[in-house]
Amino acid sequence: MPHDDRNAHEAGAEPPSKSARKRAAHAAQDLGEALTALRDAELEALELPEALLDAIRAARRITSRAAAVRQRQYIGRLMREVDLESIRAALATRDARTRRDAERFRQISAWRERLIAEGPPALTELSRRHPQIDRDEWARRIEAARAEHVRPGSRAGAARELFRALRALFDTMPR
Length: 175
Hints:
By secondary structure, this protein is mainly alpha-helical. The protein contains nine helices and no strands. The chain has helices at about 5-10, 20-35, 40-45, 50-60, 65-80, 85-120, 120-130, 135-150, 160-170.
């Protein structure tokens, strides 16, 4: 909901300074620029006004630098009409999910590298943490990935298969 400075001034409150208004306008413009990087499905989930959605989609198609600057300013102007805090909260949630997914990917990659490098001792540790795994099947996967690592081309995709199996295993765990 837009803030009406005149009503605040009439109520006895001091109106925001020109610098404060400019900072708010730049913040709205920056937030609008962040919205242009989102996919359409993510934009739809934010329930933005149609005019703002159209402006964001148009900004993606603009290649001229000057036109892009004008479009960002226009998006910033339209952003004054929406609740910026709810958008910031939605973007923060999205960013947290992205960071969590990236950390999960790093963990899975680290386990894959450890299993390939160490072999049976790492498999013992993995089976201690996840007793439900079939050790023979995992030993086969690890050996194939190790052979691929030593002799590239011996069985293309074994490390990828190991990664997928680890991801499936970790996806069964609570996050």
